[in-house]
Amino acid sequence: MTRWRLDVAYDGSGFRGFAVNVGIRSVAGELQGALAKMCGHEVVLVCAGRTDAEVHARRQVVHFESDANLDSLRMVRSLNRMLGPEIAVIEALVVPGSFDARFSAIWRRYRYSVVTSVWVDPQLARFVWHTEGDLDAEAMREAAQTFVGRHDFSAFCRRTPPAPGRPERSRVRNLFEFAIVPDGTNRLDFWVLASSFCHHQVRSMVGTLVEVGEGRRSVASVAEALESQDRQQCGRVAPAHGLTLWEVGY
């Protein structure tokens, strides 16, 4: 069996997330179906990070195994004909059997985009959170540094009950960078880099920081919420469609 790595981009608007779920349209479901036609057998995909419904990816990474005689360039072209334009396969590479799209990854970078003008470009609307009114970017940047480092992010994660007989998953994460960068006159991009993320963590952090930018909560309240480990102390969860898995490091 040959192990393949695919780098994949997608517009998540029309999918109920990345992971396969019976009866629900997903990115992995569409990609696995196309690969099965190409390989002549069912394949199982492993991804770097499962994205939620309406979340996008610029360079998601997946791996699968097949004994079919595949050519990388032909594979990319065939998959893009079957899956485009919602899903695009950027690159296909043969990798060692030790490579794992999820467990070999050492960091993930996400971008969350917010537009604050009175209107939003229809070509961008599916990829940004449109919220009218000015935001205090400096206050948000100061509050964002609270998240940098190794912390228990329980206050900023959606808690998923563990499987029967399994321990609850740790919500301690190591966040390396958090930058808020203007892109044009009325758009702010929130760039977050960490070893991994909890469920809804990026959206919860961004939603809370936007409340700081609006003047609805103080900079100090963000540190207090983080230390409390109480989900009730978190601000609103930013909408899913403004989030993009940007890249994965190995």
Automatic annotation (TrEMBL):
Q: GO molecular function of the protein, one example?
A: RNA binding
Q: Which residues form the active site?
A: D52
Q: Which reaction equations make up its catalytic activity?
A: uridine(38/39/40) in tRNA = pseudouridine(38/39/40) in tRNA
User: Enzyme group, top EC level?
Assistant: isomerase
User: Where in the numbering of this chain does the Pseudouridine synthase I TruA alpha/beta domain appear?
Assistant: 143-250
A biological process (GO) of this protein is: tRNA pseudouridine synthesis
- Asked whether the keyword Heme is assigned, the reply is no
User: What InterPro entries would the database entry show?
Assistant: PsdUridine_synth_cat_dom_sf (IPR020103), PsdUridine_synth_TruA (IPR001406), PsdUridine_synth_TruA_a/b_dom (IPR020097), PsdUridine_synth_TruA_C (IPR020095), TruA/RsuA/RluB/E/F_N (IPR020094)
**Alphabetic keyword roster:** Isomerase, tRNA processing
User: This protein's superkingdom?
Assistant: Bacteria
CDD domains assigned: PseudoU_synth_EcTruA
- Which residues are substrate-binding? Y110
Q: What is its EC number?
A: 5.4.99.12
Tell me, in a sentence or two, what this protein's role is: Formation of pseudouridine at positions 38, 39 and 40 in the anticodon stem and loop of transfer RNAs.
Subunit details: Homodimer.
Family of the protein in this entry: Belongs to the tRNA pseudouridine synthase TruA family.
* HAMAP family reported in the protein's UniProt record: TruA
Return the PANTHER family for the record.
PSEUDOURIDYLATE SYNTHASE, TRNA PSEUDOURIDINE SYNTHASE-LIKE 1
Q: Which protein, by its recorded name, is this?
A: tRNA pseudouridine synthase A
Species in which this protein is naturally found: Candidatus Neomicrothrix parvicella RN1
